[in-house]
Structures are given as C-alpha cells and as structure tokens.
Amino acid sequence: MPKSIPDTPSAPKPLAPYSVAAEANGFVFLSGQVGIDPETGERAPDDVRAQAHRVMDNIGVVLSDLGLSYDDIVKTSIFLSSIDDFPVVNEVYGGYFENDPPARSTFQAGALPGGFLVEIEVVAAR
Fold it and tell me: Is residue 58 part of a domain?
C-alpha cells in the first residue's frame, strides 16, 4: 500500500511543514503532538500535567478522525524538555491505556519547539 496522507480535521494545525498523519502498509504514523488546543489554537498552560493531558487528548481526536483508538497504538515516543517531568507524564499517559499499553520510548530532548514541555508521537496499526 503506498503512502497516503489522511484527512485529520480535528487535529491542531501543523506548526511547520509536516503532515499530522501518514499511512502506509497498515500502519498510521502520527507526528509529534504538543499542547495546543485544536479548537482554539491556544497553548496549554506551562504545566507539564496540563500539557500531557492536552497532548494525549489531541492524539485521541486524531485517531478518532482516522477510525482508530488508543487501543490501536503499537508504539509511542515521548519527548520531554526535562526528564524530571517523567513521573507526572508517565502517570497522565498511563491513564489513557486500560489494557496492554503500547511499546514506548521516553527521551529528554532538552528543548522542544515552541518551549513546550512534552511532545508525543505515535504509531498505530489498522
């Protein structure tokens, strides 16, 4: 199956030249989501818990646009501006997966675009 760029009307608008999602060979790749409210375009507060919830909610609406859910996620990568935020982000993230959470990597990025505190990218399977 060749690469396609699905429509994601509920997602926050990209901040740079990238697609919110790309699909190929039964996998859906979501670009990193940050704490932007997709309805207002406003930034979540500079609080890692609030941003982590906003990020996970954004992932949920994008997945929903594509007929998928959190249960379809097979791999995530979490990027933190500070590894000290890991416990809070881990707690928030864990609340979105009732059973069988996906494989995951977590990194301290040092700095994220726009000064965000957390960014999460996702791979889901159809």
Answer: yes
